[in-house]
Amino acid sequence: MSVDKLIVGLSGMPGSGKSIVVSVAKNIGFGIIVMGDIIREETQKRGLLLTPKNIGKVMLDLRMKWGNNIIAEKCIPKIKKIPFEKVLIDGLRSLDELNLFKKHISRFNLIAIHSSPETRFQRLNQRGRSDDPKDRKSFQERDIRELNIGLGHVIAMSDYLLINELSIEEIKSKSQKTFQSIEEKWMQ
C-alpha cells in the first residue's frame, strides 16, 4: 500500500451521523469508499431488492463464505485506484476489517461516531433510504446484527470518537477539527 496516501476509516451504528462526517471529508478533499456499497452491489447482483433484511442476509452470507474481512479486502484495490491522496473508508464493522486495514496501511486512523439509539432511530426514519428500518423491531434487529459482527468492538478501538447528539453544524465542526488533527499528525 502506498504510504503517500492518508487513509482514514469511519465506523458507527446506523443513523449515528457517518454521512455528515463523509460530507465533511469530501469538502476537504478526501476520496470516499463506502463499504456498504459493496454489499448493496452484491445484493443487486443476486437480484434482490435493497431491503434491510436482504442486505443484512447478503452481508452475513459474504462474511460466512469468505471471512469477516471480505468487504475490507474488496476495498484495498479501490484504495489503490482512487485518484485522491486522502481517502476515507466509510463503514468498518468488524475487528477483522480493522486489522486488515492496519496490516496494509501503516498509519491507519479510525474515527467512530456515536449517537443514542433513540436519536439514531429518529434519523433513520427521517432519512428514508430503502434499506432503513421502518419500525423499532427491525431497527433493533439491525442493531443486533451489526453488533454481532463486531461493530461495538470497532467503535471501542477507534482513535477518535465523535459524540453526535448535536446540531449538524456542531458535528461538522467537530469532524473538521478531527480531520485537521489527523492530517497534522500524518504530516509529521
| Overall residue-averaged pLDDT value | 93
What is Rg?
16 Å
Question: What general form does the structure show?
Answer: globular
Structural class: alpha/beta
What is the third-level CATH name, the topology? Rossmann fold
Shape-level CATH architecture: 3-Layer(aba) Sandwich
Record the strand order, biggest sheet.
2-3-1-4-5
The low-confidence parts are none
- Series of H and E elements: EHEHHHEHEHHHEH
- Between the first and last Cα atoms, what is the distance in angstroms? 19 Å
* CATH superfamily descriptor: P-loop containing nucleotide triphosphate hydrolases
The largest sheet, given as strand count, sense and whether it forms a barrel, is: 5 strands, parallel
Number of helices: 9
What does this molecule look like?
The chain has 9 helices and 5 strands. The longest helix is centred in the last third of the chain and has 20 residues. The mean pLDDT is 93. A 5-stranded parallel beta sheet has the order 2-3-1-4-5, sandwiched between helices. Helix 4 runs parallel beside helix 5. The protein has one domain: 3-Layer(aba) Sandwich (Rossmann fold), CATH 3.40.50. The chain starts with 5 loop residues before the first strand and ends with a helix. The radius of gyration is 16 Å and the shape is globular. The relative contact order is 0.22.
